[in-house]
Amino acid sequence: MATIITVSNQKGGVGKTTTSSALAAGIAMAGTRVLCIDLDPQGNLGFCLGSESTTGATILDVLKGDVSVPEAVCRTDYGDVLPSDITLSSSGLEHTAVPHKEYILRDALAPVIADYDYIVIDTPPALNLLTVNAYALSDFLIIPMASDILSLVGLSQLKETVESVKSTLNPRLQVLGILLTRFNRRTLLSRDVLEMAQQLADQMGTKVFESKIRSGVAIAEAPAHGESIYDYNPRSAAVKDYEAFIEEIADTIHLKEVAGHGKKEQ
Length: 266
Hints:
Elements: E1 3-7, H1 16-28, E2 34-38, H2 44-48, H3 59-63, H4 69-72, E3 74-76, E4 79-82, H5 104-109, E5 118-122, H6 129-137, E6 140-146, H7 155-168, E7 174-181, H8 188-203, H9 217-221, H10 229-232, H11 237-249
Parallel strand pairs: 1-5, 1-6, 2-4, 2-5, 6-7
Antiparallel strand pairs: 3-4
């Protein structure tokens, strides 16, 4: 049975998709079977992992029952990807006649969930039905947060959503922690945000990860080259931060190796 990890924050621009792709690639490079699911209508997760759709099918087609997961997946060097596009933003799933709409994703994945070791879900920057579907299915939740004050806004609503899902849909959902991105420990702002994030983490019964992700141009450049950040520039400070992050959570998610130990030859 796959371990399912959702990366989520209702605010955009916090490094959510970058974190999803870094997590998925790092896990895959440890020799495991990974499925990446893009629930963000911007559709950037597949691009970050170097996928090119050959069928034109997306996660929306799977959710509607028009195609199966194997028919829609794109194969990459870093696992399988269920891609997304802008049509997901006006999917109309909320108005379907399907009972228990919060479990549409779970039911769609049921036939293949045993085929993978890990499933990584990138969610939209909103607390909508797609996000709730991801929460209702997941074992773990990771919350990336940029190191600025505005990123703190709205986390209280996310906290309420998580608590509601745990009490009604998925009692096993565990918030692994808050991951600070664009972090610069030399600035007062980053240190202040860290302190406030720790207070929020306490309220959510979780933690701020010891690993902090620094800014780095390699993170932005890698998708254009169709490579993971680990293959594109393993010497980048931000890449090393993501490796440290995966190592930090490895025991919790039962990962025996980390990205830095499984890279392809350069």
